[in-house]
Amino acid sequence: MTKIILRTEELQTFYILDVQGKQKVVKAVNEVSLDIRENEIYGIAGESGCGKSTLLKAFAIAIEPPLRQVGGKIIYLVDGEEVDSATLDAEGVRELRWKFLSYVPQGSMSVFNPVLKLKETYQDFITSHVEVRSRDEALKMAKEQIIELGLPLNILDAYPHQLSGGMRQRVTIALAALLRPRIIIADEPTTALDVVVQRGVVQMLKEIQSRLENTIILVTHDMGVHVNAADRIGIMYAGKIVEEAPTDVIFSNPQHPYTQYLIDSLPRFGDKTPRESVPGSPPSLSELPPGCPFHPRCPHVLDRCREEMPDHIQLDIDHRVACWLVGEGENG
Amino acid sequence: MDKILEIDNLTKVFSMGSITSRERLTATDNISFYIKPGEIFALAGESGCGKTTTAKMVLGFEEPTSGTIVHKGKTEEHAQSKKVWLTEGVQAIFQDPFGTFNPLRTVDRYFFETVRNYKLASSRDEAIDLIDLKLKAVGLSFAEFSGKYPSEFSGGQLQRISIARALLTDPVLLIADEPVSMVDASLRMSIVNLFKDLREEFGMSVLYITHDLATAYYMCDRIAVMFRGNIVEIGTVEKVLMEPKHPYTKLLRDSIPEPDTDRRWTEKVVLSDLEHEEYQRTGCKFAGRCPEVMDVCRSVMPQDLDVDGVLVKCHLFAE
C-alpha cells in the first residue's frame, strides 16, 4: 500500500490582521484535508489569491504572524513515524528542513547572495546542514550533484547575475534536492520563465522525482504544466480544495463547474472556437460569500449553493468533488 | 497595398559597458514586417528576442539605429512632432496592470487627463459620456469606476481599464505588450476575446506582443516569430503554428505546455547555457542548439526565403 507522507486534517490557516483597530480575518486555507502520497507529483492549481501559496507555507512549517494555524493538523510521516507539525519546536523544524522537506518559494531565482560565487553558496549550505570534514569535501558533493543533473560545471564559478533566470531556477531546485529530501515543495517554479526553459525545469523536476522516488508538491496556475508534470491534481478555490483526481481524470471528466471552466477556457492549437473565461472575479478571502464560495460565479447555481457549503463526494477511488450538482441527494 | 504600419529593415544596437570594454548588442537586426487595417498581428518570441524593443521603437520611446517605421504612409520625420505621431492613432497597453497606474491617484483622473490632452470633449459632461462609452466597450461603466483607486480593482479589471483609456482617442493601431501574461488564467480569455471584439467593432489593428503562442493562435491572423533579434518566420498563424518550418519555431511550438493529456512532452529539450553567446554569433543565431545544423549555418546568416507563402530565415530551405 502506498504510504501517506503528508496528511492534513481540516487545516485552517488564516491571516489575522489589525486594520485601523478592526480585526480582519483572511481565510486563506479553510478546512483543507489532503493525503499526499510517497513517490508522486501532486499538483495544486488555482488562480492567484486562492490560498495555494499559503497552503504551501503551512506544509513547509513556515507559518509566521500574521498567518496563524487556527485549526486542523498537518501530519508528516518521518522515517515511518507520524509527526504532528504542531508538536515541533524550532530545533525540530530545523532538523526536518532540507533533509526531510525542501521548500522552493515563488521567485526563488533571486535567493542567491549576489556577491558570492555559487560554489560558496553551495559550500555554506552543505556545511551548515551535513557533517563534512572540509569545504573541499562539500564542493565535491556539489559537483557530483551538478553533473548528475546535467547542469554545466562552470556555474559553480559564476556569480548569480551571470546566469539566466532559467539556470538560476534550476540551480535553486538542485540545491533543494541536494540532501535527498522526501518532500520537495515548489511554488510556481516555472512562472516568469520562457516556454523552452519552463519545459527544461519541468523535465528536471520529474527527473529528480524519479531518481529520489520522493514526493513533489507542485503549485502552478498553468494547467499545461500540470498535464506534463503532475500525477494527481487538487483544484483550489477560495481556500478550499473543490476537486481532486488523477491528472487524466481531471482533464477527461472534470465535475466541478470551476474545474470545467479552468480547462475549457484554455486555447488549443488547431481549434479557434470561442473560449469563455470564468465570469466575474474571485471573491475576497476576507469576505467570503455564504455557502459555496463559487456560487456567485457559477452558471449552474442552485438555491442550496447559496446557503450551505457542500462536503466532498467520493466519485471514484481517487476522485472527489465538493459540489451540490454532483450526486445530488446522496450523502457525501 | 493598404498598410497601417510598415517596418522596414529596423535595427537597434545597444552599446553596453565602459569606454574601454564596450560591447554591442543587436536587439533587433534588420527586421521588416507590416500590419494591415483590421488585422491582429502577433510578434512572438522568448524574453530577450527583441520584441519589446520593436514595440518601443514603434511608439517612439527608442530611437532606431537604422531602418524606417512608416505609419499610414508617413515616416516619423514627416510627422510634426513625436506627440503628433502618437495622436495619429497609435496607443499602447503594457504588461503589468498594477504598474500602469499610480496607486495614489484615482483611475478616472487618467481618463480626464487624456480627454484634456487630446481635446476630445468641450465640457465635463461630454467627457463623462465619452469615457462611459469607452468603458462600456470593455464591459465596465463610469459609475462603477469613478473615484476609485487602482488597488480597488483586480488585475483583469485594471487591464480592461488600460484598454478603455487607450480607446479614448479612437486609435487605429493598438500595441499590446504581453497584455495577458499577468492576468489570471481564469480571466485571461476575457481580455483576449476583448481584442477580437474591438477588431470586429472598430476595425482596429492590434500588434500583439507575446510569448504565449496558444493565445496568438486563437486570436491573430498573422504571426512573426523572433529569435535573438531576428525574425525567423512570418506567415499566417495556421501555417506558422500548425506546420512550423524553422527549427526554432518547431522547438517553441513543441515546448508550449498544452492542457491536453494526449499531447504531453515526450522528447528532452536542450537549453542554451550561455544566452549571451547567441547574440554574438555571426551565422544563424540558433545554430548552437539546432537539431538540423549544417556547416554553413555557423558562418553565414541565412536569407529570408519564401516557402509556401511563409517567410523563413533558414538555410534548410535554400536551393
What's the structural blueprint in terms of helices and strands?
The complex is a heterodimer of chains A (332) and B (319).
Chain A: E1 4-19, E2 22-37, E3 41-45, H1 52-59, E4 67-78, E5 81-84, H2 90-96, E6 101-104, H3 118-129, H4 135-148, H5 165-177, E7 183-187, H6 195-212, E8 215-219, H7 223-229, E9 232-237, E10 240-246, H8 247-252, H9 257-264, E11 313-314, E12 320-321
Parallel strand pairs in A: 3-8, 3-9, 6-7, 7-8
Antiparallel strand pairs in A: 1-2, 1-4, 4-5, 9-10, 10-12, 11-12
Chain B: E1 5-16, E2 23-35, E3 40-44, H1 51-59, E4 66-71, E5 74-75, H2 82-87, E6 90-93, H3 97-100, H4 107-117, H5 124-137, H6 142-145, H7 155-167, E7 173-177, H8 185-202, E8 205-210, H9 213-219, E9 222-227, E10 230-236, H10 237-242, H11 247-255, H12 275-280, E11 304-307, E12 310-313
Parallel strand pairs in B: 3-8, 3-9, 6-7, 7-8
Antiparallel strand pairs in B: 1-2, 1-4, 4-5, 9-10, 10-12, 11-12
